[in-house]
Amino acid sequence: MESLSLLADGLATAVTPENLMWAAIGVLLGTFVGVLPGIGPAMAVALLLPVTFGLEPTQAFIMFAGIYYGGMYGGSTTSILLNTPGESASVMTALEGNKMAKKGRAAQALATAAIGSFIAGTIGTMLVVFFAPALAGVAVKIGAPSYLAIMLMAMVLVTSVLGSSRLRGFIALFIGLTIGLVGLDMNTGQPRLSFDQPLLADRLDIVVVAVGIFALGEALWVAAHLRRRPLSVIPVGRPWMGRDDWGRSWKPWLRGTALGFPFGAVPAGGAETPTFLSYVLEKRLAKKGHEFGSGAIEGVAGPEAANNASAAGTFVPLLALGLPVTATATIMLAALQGYGIQPGPQLMTEHPDLVWTLLASLLIGNTLLLVLNLPLAPLWAKLLRIPRPYLYAGILFFASLGAYTANQQPFDLFLLLVFGLLGLAMRRFGLPVLPLILGVILGPLMETKMREALAISGGDPAGLVDEPLAVVVYAVIVLLVVVPLVLARVRPRLTPTEAAADAPAPADQSDKESVR
């Protein structure tokens, strides 16, 4: 009850007309900047952070919360409309959201993303309010072996369970893991796959990789087929979600929230793993699973909810431990320190007014995001009325701008072209994109956690399974791999009589004539 009382005091401070104005300005600015391809929420917050410096701390936090949630929604907008994820956590949204847009359901994809973001962000913020200290204590106890096991399970699910071809899935995963190796070895300092190029000493920026594979690869693929098969304008479709869309979205919203928040609350967590797991879960549970890969609304609703719930969960280690677990959280930590506030165990007792105002501002910013952007979903969808040659020309421009802005290095434009050609080749030979992106994102994290676990155990491989959670996850991995193989082997084969009975009846002569 004390938490509710303190939150009510924070809301009372944040809902004055002037403060609501700053929150609305923050949401609009964050959305407009986040909509630019290649610019995710972290970059949107970093670009707009100086705007808050001249304000009072309370007003700055309120505007900052609006920028934060606006930038996140803007990133999902580009993923859905332009197939251009602004950050790694938006990759899953692009997979199904862009397919929905091409089928004339862009408004529905944007709407389910907005509503799912609102639900997940609100529930996540309330969980932070009530359970931040306790959750921070639990999160610290989850070690490197468990992280390693969870990331390995995500790879197994994507390549062995969900893919239509295991071979192609493993080829794509191998390519992604290889790309993730580029850069200096964190332990020895030796360059790996850098080809004596100093600009490859750092890890490849995931924004450049994702924008190249998705946006530039798609644009090159479309350009290669323009003369062979002229492309029409993408239809916009009806502007609002129907009853069926609501029925198919509300459970993924809740499941995505339940998956995303714990991953955000653990130090060194992030939104990539829960969004991948949410996509996997929704594909397994969906009644219309055959629609996945061609525009399933569950594939947008679940990962978007997981993304925003994870974003809310990052406030647990940030406020309770002073540990930023994402790039956006790092920028938020810098903003807090700019006002002389050092997050940590004593934060809620030393600066209670600012903390509760910040949490209340997150609720307000999340609400304003829904109120302002849900009516704009049909307007954003009308961008697809632009003829695709002109649309993809604009995508190339903004993709190049986003790739250059990531590190402000012209060399990144060359990398963008390389990954664009790789994306084109993958489309040509039918290689799935998801395992490649998963390998690029989780490969370096897996290496770090494996080395950390082995260092703690003194090099003993048993250190990889010395946590109960890790043992449980490895058991699940074994079941995921073995059970389908066993079922395929013991499943009774059809007898010749049964096979003939199940075979389609031959067409009669009239049908053959009609076919001719």
TrEMBL record:
Q: Where is the DUF112 domain?
A: 20-438
- InterPro entries to which the protein is assigned, alphabetical: DUF112_TM
Q: Name one Pfam family in it.
A: TctA
> What protein name does the entry list?
Tripartite tricarboxylate transporter permease
Source organism (scientific name): Nocardioides zeae
Q: Which UniProt keywords apply?
A: Membrane, Transmembrane, Transmembrane helix
Q: Which residues form the signal peptide?
A: none
Listed transmembrane segments: 20-49, 109-132, 144-162, 169-186, 206-224, 315-336, 356-377, 389-407, 413-442, 469-488
